[in-house]
Each structure stands twice: as C-alpha cells, then as structure tokens.
Amino acid sequence: MRSLLLAGAESVWLREKAMRRPFMRRAVSRFMPGETVDEALGACRRQQEQHGTGTILTHLGENLSSLAEAEAVTSDYLELIDRIAIEKLDVQVSVKLTQLGLDLGLDACDQNLQRLVVRAESRSNVVWIDMESTKYVDSTIALYRRARERSSRVGLCLQSYLRRSMADLEALLPLGPAIRLVKGAYREPANLMFASKMEVDENYFRLAARMLQPGVPNGTFLGVGTHDARLVDRIRVEIAARGADRAAYEFEMLFGIQRPLQARLVAERAPLRVLISYGEFWFPWYMRRLAERPANVLFVMKSLFAG
Ligand code: FDA
Fold first, then answer.
1. What pLDDT digit, counting tens, does each position of 80-117 carry?
2. Within 10 Å of residue 115's Cβ, how many Cβ atoms?
3. 226 alpha carbon – ligand 1 mean position (Å)
C-alpha cells in the first residue's frame, strides 16, 4: 500500500484528476487548514493563541521548470517572512530547495536561499530546509553548509531511514547545526535505506541521542520531527538524562496529526512547533501523508461519501 501511494504521488495524471475532486479537497483539509497564505497564517495565529505553540509554514510545491518560477517562490517567501514579523507571529518557514531552483543550477538556488536567510536574519526568524529524495541529499547538504557558514538562522532536515544520515550528521556537527530529524517520506532505492521500521526508529533515536551528547558545539539545535509517541517519550528521557537546555531542542509535528500527543506535550510544557502547509500543489504531499498511515485512506473514502 505504501509503495502504491508513493508511486501515486509521482503521477501527473492522478494529480490532475485528484486535485479537481471536491471529496479529495475535503479529505485534505484534515491536514491543511487552507490553500491560501491568509488561511495558513490564520491557523498559525490560532495555534499560538489557543495552544501557545509556534508554527512552521511551508508553501507546497516541488520541481520547477524555470528560474523565473524559482524567483517567484523566493519572492513569496520573502514577503511571508516580512508579514510574519509585521504580524508579530512565532512562525518560521520551511522550504524545499527544488522550489528554489535546485534542478536548474546550484548557484541560482544558493542565491535564492541566501536571500531568504538574510531576510530571516534581519527579521530574527529562521529558515528550515526540507530534505527531499536521495538524489538531492548531497546538493541539499552542500547548500546548507554554505548557508550555515554565513548565518546561524538556518536549519536542515535529515532522514533516519537513510543509512548515510549518521555520517552526514557527524560531518555537520562541527558547525553547531540546527537539525530537524524525521524518518523520511520518499520512495528510495532499498540499498540506501534501513529495511525495517524498527531499524529506522532505532537510527532515529541514535541520531537524536548523538545530538544531545555533551560536547556538541554551541548552537546545536535538535528538532524532533516525529509523531511517534514511543520515540518522543524515549527522547524526552534522554533529554532529561542529559540535562539538555530547553532552548536547544523542540518537538515538531504536522498540523492535524497525532493531536492528542501534541496536546499532551503542550500540557507537559514541552517545546512544540506545528508545521502547517498551504498552497495549491498539495497532491504529492497529501499522498505521502496517506502512505505514512494507510488507514488514512479510509478518511478519503468517508469524504467521498460525505455531503
Ligand atoms: P511513524 O510513521 O512511525 O508514525 C508514528 C505514529 O504517528 C503512527 O503510528 C500514527 O499514529 C501517527 N502518524 C504518522 N503519520 C501519520 C499520518 N500521515 N496520518 C495520521 N497519523 C499519522 N519527511 C521528509 O522526507 N523530508 C522532510 O523535510 C520532512 N519534513 C518534516 C517536518 C516535520 C515537522 C515532520 C513532523 C515530518 C516531516 N517529514 C519529512 C515527514 C516524515 O519523514 C515522516 O514521513 C512523517 O513524520 C511520519 O513519520 P513519523 O515520524 O511520524 O513516524
């Protein structure tokens, strides 16, 4: 089921059909408060006011075909960073480098990323870089390095399903990086990944524990990006055992997923940030959410028959 859903995520035919279907739009609203930036910012404000938690915004969209498109995405994010500051919201942004032109040239993408990081720096904000499929890992890390050498207001996502991630983390640690750990959401060649969920989870824990070890450089920041309650609890025990500074970590979860766990963390005063997606290009992203929990397909079915 997972492979089928992830293959579906890459199908243009399916995307064009699905995005026109009202029942798909209804189903997707469970994970996405709205397509527009106003709807997304409204949800961020509610999250802050009602739950006291900060958020991360990401504008959905993936590979682009022209530098003009990458420029437009960059301008939208620049405007967003300004709006967040003007509206005094605790909202960071998370970007996919393919949206900033990674397929069209490393330097052009670097320039767009640099513009965002400079703006984030001037607005006391942070730009996170998502990790996409394996073919982009080397270039994404290379651009993160360049950005991190210029500013500390940039973070990078690493995926625990990849065998290479511990070596990548070790190589980045001397920078005092901000790293968001996730399990990984793409369809990847088997030889590059851990085979079982147990191994992926164990690697996740090892990566998190490595970041919490004494002696990591100042500025190292751990974003625990998972909805896995077992892992969250295990990492919280490690955080307590290490006496980690509260400013050096946070839990990060997607809007609408594992709400009871999010509420528990808020009640227990653990630092939590919720990632909210918006934009019209939600189909591949939504298929990856279904693949994470095929039981979600039932919600699509229910939406099909509702109203
Ligand atoms: P796991 O899949 O084991 O789920 C644990 C439990 O959470 C499940 O048992 C279920 O109860 C619940 N759950 C998880 N997903 C659900 C869903 N879709 N619907 C309903 N319940 C669900 N990936 C990537 O490759 N690159 C990236 O840049 C990012 N960025 C990112 C940021 C943040 C803040 C988060 C939280 C996640 C990502 N991801 C990502 C996605 C990540 O790789 C992964 O696919 C999902 O987080 C699901 O994995 P879990 O760690 O939640 O564990």
1. 999 999 999 999 999 999 999 999 999 999 999 999 99
2. 17
3. 5
Dihedral sign, CA of 40, 44, 47, 50? negative
Q: Domain residues for 61? A: 33-281
Task: Select which of 180, 201, 228, 273 is catalytic.
Answer: 180
Identify whether the C-beta of residue 294 lies closer than 8 Å to the C-beta of residue 188: no
Helices (H), the chain: 2-9, 12-18, 22-28, 37-51, 67-86, 106-122, 137-150, 165-172, 197-212, 229-242, 259-267, 283-292, 296-305
Q: Are residues 195 and 78 in the same domain?
A: yes
Written as one letter, the residue type at 295 is A
Q: Rounded CA gap, 237 and 223, in Å?
A: 16
Q: What is the CATH number of the domain that holds 172?
A: 3.20.20.220
Give the closest residue to 226 by CA, choosing from 267, 286, 268, 185. 185
Same domain, 3 and 73: no
Ligand 1 pocket (Cβ < 6 Å) reads: 130-131, 157, 159, 180, 182-186, 225-228, 252-254, 257-258, 275, 289, 292-293, 296
Cα 63 to Cα 98: distance, rounded to the nearest angstrom: 5
pLDDT confidence tier of residue 287, bands split at 50, 70 and 90:
confident
**Domain count for the chain:** 2
Read off the pTM.
0.92
